[in-house]
Amino acid sequence: MTTVGAVLVWSDLGDLDRHDTGVGHPERSARLEAVRRGVADALGPDGIATDGVVRVAPRDATADEIARVHSTRYTWSLARLADDGGGDLDPDTPVSAGSYATAVLAAGAGLAVIDTLRASGRGAGFVAVRPPGHHARPGIGMGFCLLNNVAIAAAALADAGERVLVVDWDVHHGNGTQDAFWDDPRVAYASVHQSPLYPGTGLVHETGGPGAPGTTINVPLPAGATGEMYRRAVDDVLADAAAAFAPTWVLVSAGFDGHRDDPLAGHHLTAGDYGDLAGRIAALAPTDGRVVVFLEGGYDLAALRRSVAATVGRLTGTSTSDEAPSHGGPGADAVDAARVQHGRATGAG
Amino acid sequence: MTPTVPALRCLVVGIDGSDDAARALEWAIALARPTGARVVAVHALGLLARLGDTRVATGTHRDAITREFADRWCAALDRAGVPADRIAVDGPPAEVVLAVAHSESADLVVVGERGVGGTAAELGSTSRRVLAATTVPVLVVPAAPTTGPGPPP
Ligand SMILES: [Zn+2]
């Protein structure tokens, strides 16, 4: 069990605003400013300039690092689309001239933060990047996502001999990450999300391929679920599964679009819930310095700022959220169903 | 050797509110009338949708989007009076169309060449992705011609 370190390894925002999604798109550059303010709120007036923060400049992910997750055919086509001035991957997912370079930098930011943590062995990583990544599948981007940042980081760790648990608390199922590691026993993927909702995957019986049975865990919750159901999912399902899997690293796909103020979905979490979740999930890592939180969704700027503050405050032990955790609502049956599913699939519980 | 052309019992048509999808629906109706086939109109619910001139989040406007799909985008079905169903499913358009074609045992899939937002480029084209993965015949209705034939009357 990790002691949550006072060190935050923070990826500088870089030039991530070059990914231009157009007027009125919710996945916009202003999100990163809200995240920066949230980090500053958590750490006090000096914000990320404090001694407790190690600032890491993002770097470009290399072609080989991206190719661990994405087909070269897709990566090449995406680069060409951006080179040609852009276009849309689907009605949700615009690509601008700067999008490919931004996505490559976003994917590399996680790798740079991990390199720093490997060297120091202490603290928690926070990778504030856009575009988000967890819907990006090996062969195609979708759902605002171009390259799968968390998957590229998990694949790099797995190739270095690590066992990686990816926990995804974005309100949408991370179908791209699930696809990437479906049959890979080195990386476990656990998601708590709203269902039915885009992208339509993440049903409870989706538990991994024949080469990695039980290493995909899905806890689909109905609309109206509160933070209590996310906590139950972690305590009643993920904790046992993590103990059985014995990860050496824990990566978090931290979308904050389950917040009650978020326009994209119908869950009722508060900022305090995200702080709670961050603490619980950090405790699944074997030691300090082995947790990295990646920004995914979160589209109400005020809610995003408060939720990031709660998450970072909990990871660094510097502050607690004044937005109380939420309780009640539907979803207890769904958590039970996932517990039963994984009691069978893993032979535990 | 004369190939055997199976009867058309079920046509699945992708609907996204675009002009191309409306023309695809007209083709599906034109094929359904003489054959008695059932038309299954399918809409893939993404993260965002257009309601009139406004872009809205599907998660909070789900009912309105589903109504817009059923009542307005599929209005031609009511006028035509052919047997029809309307299905809205969460997911990426090509996968949703193919999944419904499979579950409905469709004999033919009808899609517009381009849709809302999607480009004709290799990466953005739903019709190309449907063609790449389909196991049933697909009719692709070309993008907004200024000349040339429409659907048969
Ligand atoms: Zn999301």
General form of chain A: globular
Q: Predict the CATH topology of chain A.
A: Arginase, Chain A
Radius of gyration of chain A: 18 Å
CATH homolog superfamily of chain B? HUPs
Query: Largest chain interface and its two residue counts?
Result: A-B, 35 and 28 residues
Describe this entry's structure for a reader.
The complex is a heterodimer of chains A (349) and B (153). By secondary structure, chain A is of the alpha/beta class. Chain A has a single domain (8-346), classed as Histone deacetylase domain (Arginase, Chain A), CATH 3.40.800.20. Chain A is built from ten helices and ten strands. Chain A has helices at 30-43, 63-67, 72-83, 99-120, 149-159, 175-181, 227-245, 271-282, 301-316, 332-346; strands at 8-11, 53-56, 86-90, 93-96, 124-127, 164-168, 187-194, 216-221, 249-254, 291-295. Chain A starts with 7 loop residues before the first strand and ends with a helix. Mean pLDDT of chain A is 93; it is low at 1-5 and 345-349. By secondary structure, chain B is of the alpha/beta class. Chain B has one domain (10-141): HUPs (Rossmann fold, 3-Layer(aba) Sandwich). Helix content of chain B is 38%, strand content 24%. Chain B contains five helices and seven strands. Chain B has helices at residues 19-35, 58-73, 75-80, 93-103, 126-133; strands at 10-14, 38-45, 48-51, 54-57, 84-90, 108-112, 138-141. In chain B, helix 5 links the parallel strand 6 (108-112) and strand 7. The A-B interface holds A 24-26, 74, 77-78, 81, 84, 87-92, 94-95, 140-144, 171-172, 194, 196-201, 263-266, 299 and B 16, 45-50, 55, 57-60, 89-93, 96, 115-119, 121-124, 126. Zinc ion is lined by residues 170-172, 255, 257, 296-297 of chain A.
Q: Topology, please?
A:
The complex is a heterodimer of chains A (349) and B (153).
Chain A lengths: L7 E4 L18 H14 L9 E4 L6 H5 L4 H12 L2 E5 L2 E4 L2 H22 L3 E4 L21 H11 L4 E5 L6 H7 L5 E8 L21 E6 L5 H19 L3 E6 L16 H12 L8 E5 L5 H16 L15 H15 L3
Parallel strand pairs in A: 1-2, 1-5, 5-10, 6-7, 6-9, 7-8, 9-10
Antiparallel strand pairs in A: 3-4
Helix pairs in contact in A: 1-9, 4-5, 7-8, 7-10, 8-9
Chain B lengths: L9 E5 L4 H17 L2 E8 L2 E4 L2 E4 H16 L1 H6 L3 E7 L2 H11 L4 E5 L13 H8 L4 E4 L12
Parallel strand pairs in B: 1-2, 1-6, 2-5, 6-7
Antiparallel strand pairs in B: 3-4
The complex binds zinc ion.
